[in-house]
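Figure 2 data, in text form.
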Amino acid sequence: MPMSDVSTSNAPTTAATDRGGDGEFETSTPAFISPVAMENDPDALFAGDRGTLDADVRRVLVRILQRRFLLAESSPAEWKLLLEHQQMIESRLNDLFVRLVVDHARGVAYKEQVRSDEVDVPILLKDEAYSRAETLVLVYLRTVFQRETTAGTASARVDVEEVEQTVLTYFAETDGTRASQQRAVRTAIARLDREGIIEEESEGRYRIGPLIEIVLSAETLRELQAWLDEQITSSPASTLPDLPEKALLP
């Protein structure tokens, strides 16, 4: 809570004692200071508030903890506050063994769990792996994004039908009916839309955002593409195994 004037009307007074009778006084400091009532501290947001951040900055901190990503494009006000108070927000996160990553070029901020072999770090953030269908959709989106940006296209876009058409080729007959596979793909697309990796511009048509490069790096994309090509070459679709653990991105 920011510093404020403290009312001392009910606080213990400081005593002065002339011990030697020579006019030299010693003072004794009170052992405690009376708590400040909320109505006497306008900076407090709730009873017992000991926080030092303004309300808006606290909300940005909470958003960082709640969400997987904070995007400048979709949350400009929160992005501005984050940049203005980045050092303080980073400090709060570091206290929790969490690292803040701010990518100015892409306009995205996200958090990472600190892990160390030298320090006992309690794990606060739990990895939430993408499903097999979500990972396959990511691979296709990342491939399209890389192809279009390399060709100089300002932005990459896909239709849900073309995503389905490609991704469904990687499903095995044992993965359920065609209808259930399509639902899995649509569910995967919906999650990536919520996370801001893609954005629906019109019904069934999505723009792929630069966030895809963070979620799926070029190196990981090459590994996954090589693995998928190998499975297609060496295994019939009906026995296509699950994606390796490295493909299930946090």
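Caption note: Residues 1-15, 236-250 have pLDDT under 50 and may be disordered.
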